[in-house]
Amino acid sequence: MLQRLLLIVALLISAARADALEYTDVYYNPDEGGWGIFLVQSDITQFIAFFIYDTNRNPTWYTAQLTQDATGAYTGPLIATTGTYFGSPWNKSQLTVATAGTASFKPTDAYHATLTYALTNGQPVTKTVERQVLTQYQLAGNYSGAFSGTQSGCTDPSNNDAHFRATHNLGVVQTGDTAATLTFTFTDTQNPGLVCKVQGPLTHFGRLYKMANAQFTCTGPNAPPAATVTIDSLHPTGQGIEGKLTGTVAGCAMVLSFAAVLNN
After folding, report:
1. Which of 55, 69, 109, 260 is the most exposed place for a label (fewest CB within 10 A)?
2. pTM of the full structure
3. Which residues partner with 183 through β-bridges?
4. Which helix (H) or strand (E) holds 74?
5. Are residues 184 and 66 part of one domain?
6. Where does residue 47 rank: exposed (0-12), middle (13-18), buried (19+ CB within 10 A)?
7. Are 63 and 114 part of one and the same domain?
């Protein structure tokens, strides 16, 4: 019993941060193939490595160390480094590090961002970038997890819930990179026998999937009517799966993050 309680608590904590609070991925502009950035995030700090070209069209090396500001953008210095030819033993005396300008990474949603950078005394360059797909992720499986979020703006105000919590078993069926079905079988005492299914197309962005205009249907006691919902930031984790469900269900605006561990 204690082990299950600890699992549920851990899942609720994880679910509370299941949106794309971190943007680690490879980003590119699909209309400008050949350049891009590698971004790794730690809390509110980002490290970016650019794969771009100099004035002679040769590959060149820049990095940026960015910190989140009050607007939600990540800003900081653009760094130029040079060092030993990579085919030779490293010689630390040949390393040079210099501030070369500024850079900014501003997310526009979980999948896209505006990248702005400027060399010292140069004009700012602004690019629209998005997460780059590398390979298909395997989401299918059976999981145990929890929802955490809000239920607000309800037609019947008594249904508003600023601290919605529920546990569930989750079954995921995936059709390649094109569609998925998520079946949530509720296991908490407030929703006995309730089973809700989300079916819809998958759109793949780097490490994340989006299910827009997905069909939400439920069966069982007090089942809400069918609705259209969206699942954002759906992705596998080291232990299971995470995502965020939003939509209007039974006259209530639902914003529910979910996380679940894979059942072995």
Report:
1. 55
2. 0.88
3. 171, 197
4. strand 74-82
5. no
6. middle
7. yes
